[in-house]
Fold this protein.
Amino acid sequence: MSDPTPSLNPPLPIAARKPTWRFLLAHPAHAIALGFGSGLSPVAPGTVGTLWAWVAFLVLQPHMTDLRWALLIGVGSLVGWWACTVTARHLAVADPGAIVWDEVLAFWLVLWLVMPAGLWAQAVAFLLFRAFDAAKPGPVAWADKLFKLKRGMPIGWAQGFGILLDDFVAALCALFVIALWRFV
């Protein structure tokens, strides 16, 4: 079966690629999935992508309503599913560390739901989200494994969805801890 959108999904390279600025600029999906460059960090790209998300949130927040945040995160998830799938295919890696759009969307969700919050509360939200995302305890590990690529299978839409899913579960875990903290 041929791909109905060959211009959006050029053939995979034979070997895994390392993302570069040239790679990021080669396709709109790459720019989105790589967090507009934050995923190119040689050290802790997920953390750098989450920091970028925090700054972007603070810049956008004065102009946003709850409906706008819901739409941005919802549409961003659909676009991100496409962008993460395409970028993973082009890198020939099912869940590359350089893809940080999942961190961006998930942390926007956390910040949106904890606001209004001071800088310290936002920092706690950041640390909790990063801890759940990096350590992948319990439900986060389950979500991370749910759409893992089977040996010999091509990278597909399920893997793109899986890239996003574990970060949203990490966000829900962070929000649960924050809710418990506020309740107690």
Observations:
- The longest helix spans residues 157-183.
- The chain has eight helices and no strands.
- The mean pLDDT is 93.
- The two ends are 56 Å apart (CA to CA).
